[in-house]
Each structure stands twice: as C-alpha cells, then as structure tokens.
Design brief:
It is built from 13 helices and twelve strands. By secondary structure, the chain is an alpha/beta fold.
Length: 371
C-alpha cells in the first residue's frame, strides 16, 4: 500500500520509512505539512497518511481538517503521531478527521498493528467503492434495457401516429398531381398545401421526440420540463387518447437534465396512469415552482395501488400488473426512481385503492432565481 509520512524530524522520518518499506509498503516521505497536503490532494493520492501532530506550517491536525473539508471520494486513512496522551487531545485529534493515533514513544509491534488495521479499513472502503460502481453500472444497464423495451413497445403506436398524417399528405398530393394545372390554379390548392405542411410538421415533431428519447446521452441540458412532458404524450398518443387529459401548467420551469431520461420517466408514469384506468378516466398534469424546485404532478382517478405493495413500489421487479410483459412493467417504477434521484430530485406517490394515484416529482431548478 502507498503510505505518506509527514514528520519534520529526520530521524523519526527515516525510521518510519525504513520500517514501513521493510513491511512491503511504498513510502512517500515529506518533511512538513504543506508538502504532505500537496501530495494528498493530488489525483490518486496515497491510501494512508502517517502525520506528526506538531510540524512547522500545517500540522497534522490542520491536514486532517483540510482533507475532511475537501471531501475527496478517494479514501485516505489518517494516523496521527503525537506525544500528547491526554484524553482531550486525543478526542481533538479524532474530531479533526484523523482515523487513528499513536502516542510517542511507540513500539514496533504497536505501529504494525495500527498500520494493519488501517490497511484492512482502506481495503474495505475500496471494496465498497468497487461494489458501488458495479451497482451504478447495473442500474445504468437496467435503465437502458427498460428504455429499449419501451421503445419497442412504442413502435406500433408511433407507426399509427405517423401513418395518419402520411395518408393525408399522400391523398392531398395525389389530388394536386392528378391535374396540376387545374388544381394548382384553384383556391383549394392553398388549403391542400397548408394541410400538407401541417401534417409534415406533425411527423417532424414525432420524430424529434423519438430521437430525443432514443438518444442515449448523459449530457445535461437546460430544458423546459413541460415540453418534455408533452413530448412523452406525443410518443404514447395512441395509448393515452383513451383517457381525458387535463393540463394545468401554472409555470413551465427550466431544469438541467438528460432529456431522454426524463422523457422515459414521464412515459413510464403516464402509461401506469392509463393502465390504472381500464374503463377510462382523467389524468391531470400540473407544473409549478416551489422552493427552488420544479414540481410536476400526475394524478389519475383509476383503480389505485394496493396498500400491500405501496412500501415496495421502488424495488426492482415489483409490480401490481398481471401481464405478459410483467418484467418490463416490474422495473418501470424502479427505473423511474433511479432517473429522478440521479437528477437530484425526489418522487412521492400517494394512492388509495378505488380512488386513484397521485405522483409528485421535484427537480432542482436550472436557475434558482426563477423561483
């Protein structure tokens, strides 16, 4: 393990370096606190630091405080060397951010035991970081799998949404081409061309929203949250047309987000709302600003969620639906929760069987002054 030594006493520093090197560690030796802090704040610093309490300039306590304030993700196990053995001094050292201490003079066996304890703790921290990275990668893969599954299930509806305007464009164009001289001179030609333009714009809007959804980018953009919500509605137009939509966009705030991910979130939640109303019903959409947050509400008056599953809603593969695509639906709310939290937001769900469900989302505003 790479271990930094900081001690202004040459004899003590050489003894520590010789001992730790003999035990198989890679040692970086510094003679004062400023040198030590410079090394410890570099990318990929040593995993352990043995710091003398009293040094010129920055002392061991100062270094511990600086490192704690820096909040580095890289774990550094800090051991203070001190001649102070009063309980108050030891407590002060640990409160500053030190992980352990050794009172001078110390024995070789005590030093070895303290170093080995630190090595075990650092290894546990590194293992924890590795597992966290693996979980984050798994979460990203799960979100992407859910995205692709949703994209596949959207294909029929999107084809329907595109085919309708294509049919209109084709019909109007054929009529104009059947007798160009007569029809182009007719006042109706302007109406035909307007219809063609309108349908072309509609197709362009659908493909734009589809590209935004399918683009797997983690780039953050400042966007209007209501526009993303409308894009999600466009993509599931065939599914959502069976219910009444009520829009109450009091404010349309801007948020920094990954647009495709947020659109995926809205599609998940809107589909859940539609499926919770098999006999039809109403979905009320609201946007507003509260306490420097964009707040989005999605309320339905459907069948609601059983109380037995409310506490487990955001666990993977938990679902209230009995469908062939149970696996996809079972990751829907877990995926939604992951998307919201990865944007620094939060999600709350209130539901009562037979009365419907209310989903409340909060995201930090892109511009807090807009609050």
């Amino acid at each position: 393990m790479r271990i930094l030594i900081a001690d202004d006493d040459l004899t003590s520093r050489d003894l520590l370096e010789t001992t730790l090197t003999a035990w198989g560690h890679e040692v970086i030796s510094t003679q004062d606190g400023d040198q030590a802090l410079d090394v410890l704040t570099q990318p990929h610093p040593p995993s352990m630091a043995v710091l003398d309490w009293m040094m010129p300039g920055l002392d061991g306590i100062d270094i511990c405080r600086e490192l704690r304030a820096a909040s580095s993700e890289w774990p550094i196990y800090k051991i203070l060397l001190t001649a102070k053995d009063a309980k108050e001094d030891i407590a002060n050292g640990l409160d500053s951010g030190a992980d352990d201490y050794i009172v001078k003079p110390f024995s070789r066996s005590e030093l070895r035991a303290r170093i080995q304890a630190g090595v075990r703790i650092v290894q546990l921290q590194l293992d924890q970081m590795r597992r966290l990275r693996e979980l984050q990668e798994y979460q990203a893969q799960l979100i992407q799998s859910a995205r692709m599954a949703t994209l596949g299930s959207l294909s029929n509806g999107i084809a329907h949404e595109i085919n309708n305007p294509v049919f209109v464009i084709s019909g109007k164009a054929q009529m104009l081409l059947s007798n160009p001289q007569e029809h182009l001179a007719s006042p109706k030609a302007v109406g035909f061309l307007k219809d063609i333009k309108e349908m072309s714009d509609r197709i362009s809007g659908i493909t734009s929203h589809l590209l935004q959804y399918s683009w797997n980018s983690r780039e953050m953009k400042k966007v209007n949250i209501a526009e993303i919500l409308e894009g999600a509605i466009t993509l599931i137009g065939k599914e959502i047309c069976v219910v009444e939509l009520v829009r109450e966009y009091h404010r349309s705030p801007l948020v920094n987000c990954m647009p495709g991910r947020i659109q995926q979130l809205f599609i998940n939640l809107l589909r859940n709302a539609v499926e919770g109303m098999p006999e039809g019903g109403t979905i009320t959409l609201t946007t507003t600003v509260e306490s420097s947050c964009a707040v989005i509400g999605i309320r339905d008056n459907g069948v609601g969620i059983p109380k037995a599953v409310m506490d487990r809603l955001f666990e993977p593969f938990v679902t209230t639906k009995e469908r062939e695509d149970r696996l996809v639906m079972g990751v829907g709310l877990y995926t939604s929760y992951s998307i919201v939290t990865s944007h620094g937001g939060d999600i709350e769900i209130e539901s009562e069987p037979g009365k419907g469900t209310f989903v409340r989302l909060r995201f930090p505003l892109a511009d807090v002054n807009a609050a």
